[in-house]
Design a protein that fits this description.
Helix content is 18%, strand content 36%. It is of the alpha+beta class and 169 residues long. Strands 1, 2, 3, 4, 5, 6 and 7 form a 7-stranded antiparallel β-sheet that branches. It comes from Pontixanthobacter rizhaonensis.
C-alpha cells in the first residue's frame, strides 16, 4: 500500500487530472468541467461493507453549472450519466490510490437505478463507492464496486457491479 492520504481536496484532484498525483500513464481524473467531485472525504483499500475498499466524495452543486443550461432548456436537470461517470471516476481513483499502475477505463455497469433528480436548487452530491472485488494479477487490474449518489441526503442513483480496469496499453 502506498502512503497517500485518505482525503483529498480540490487542488489534489486537479493534480490527479494533470497526471501529477499517481504519475504519468497512471490513473487520472478528468479536468473540469467533467471532473464530477470537489473533494474525497474518505478512501480505503479495506473498508466498506465488503471490506474490499471504499470511497466517499462530495460535489458542490452550483446553480449555474454548465449542464443545467443544456439539459434541458427551461427544465434544468443534471444528466444522470454524469453521476454515473462520477462513480466510475472514483472507482478508478481508488485503484490508482492503491498504487496500482495503468490508465483507468470504465468497462461497464451491471445495474443502474435513477430515483431522483439533481436540479439547480440542490446543494451537494455525496458519492459512495463500495468495492466488491479488487483484482491485481499479472494480466488484469480491475475494481468491481457498487455505488450510490445522494443529493442533500436523498438517495437518487444506485448502481451495482461497476467495473473499472487499469491498463498500461
Amino acid at each position: 500500500m502506498t502512503d497517500y492520504p485518505t482525503s483529498f481536496d480540490r487542488d489534489d484532484l486537479l493534480k490527479c487530472a494533470r497526471g501529477e498525483l499517481f504519475g504519468p500513464g497512471n490513473a487520472q481524473l478528468p479536468e473540469p468541467p467533467m471532473l464530477m467531485m470537489d473533494r474525497i472525504t474518505d478512501i480505503s483499500a479495506d473498508g466498506g461493507p465488503h471490506e474490499k475498499g471504499h470511497v466517499v466524495a462530495e460535489f458542490d452543486i452550483k446553480p449555474d453549472a454548465w449542464f443545467f443550461d443544456c439539459h434541458f432548456p427551461g427544465n434544468p436537470i443534471m444528466p444522470g450519466c454524469l453521476g454515473l461517470d462520477g462513480l466510475w471516476q472514483l472507482t478508478g481513483f481508488n485503484l490508482g490510490w492503491r498504487g496500482w499502475q495503468g490508465r483507468g477505463y470504465a468497462l461497464g455497469v451491471g445495474e443502474v437505478k435513477l430515483t431522483g433528480m439533481v436540479r439547480p436548487d440542490r446543494k451537494k452530491l455525496t458519492y459512495f463507492v463500495d468495492f466488491t472485488k479488487a483484482i491485481q494479477t499479472r494480466r488484469l487490474t480491475m475494481g468491481v464496486a457498487d455505488g450510490r449518489v445522494e443529493a442533500d441526503g436523498e438517495v437518487i442513483y444506485q448502481v451495482k457491479d461497476m467495473k473499472v480496469a487499469l491498463s498500461e496499453a
